[in-house]
Design a protein that fits this description.
By secondary structure, the chain is mainly beta. The protein has a single domain, classed as OB fold (Dihydrolipoamide Acetyltransferase, E2P). Helix content is about 10%, strand content about 40%. Strand 1 and strand 2 form a beta hairpin. It is globular. InterPro entries: CsaA, NA-bd_OB-fold, tRNA-bd_dom, Tyrosine-tRNA_ligase_regulator.
Length: about 110
Amino acid sequence: MIGIEDFNKVEVRVGTIIEAKVNKGARKPAYALKIDFGEEIGVKKSSAQITELYTVENLLNKQVICCVNLTPMHVSSVKSEVRILGSDSEQGIVLLSLDEKVKNGDLIC
């Protein structure tokens, strides 16, 4: 288990997907995404294995919940700067979502 001090170090924020395309170099099917987190954080890149339930078209302008302060990792040619959060279901990854639209960059608490 981790303590509350460690949990509080994780920064989870809301962003809007502004660009999505197939990450052709990834070992497993994935999308290369650009996500807008507002003025303070800006636009960040991510590679996400969410191709089973989502298309490029239905990802555009979708608000997603992401961890924004992890160490970046390279997935093929994409420097994945944030981790999109979802649930690993039998059908594939289901993205966490909000009931209402909120401001990009809002903190999840």
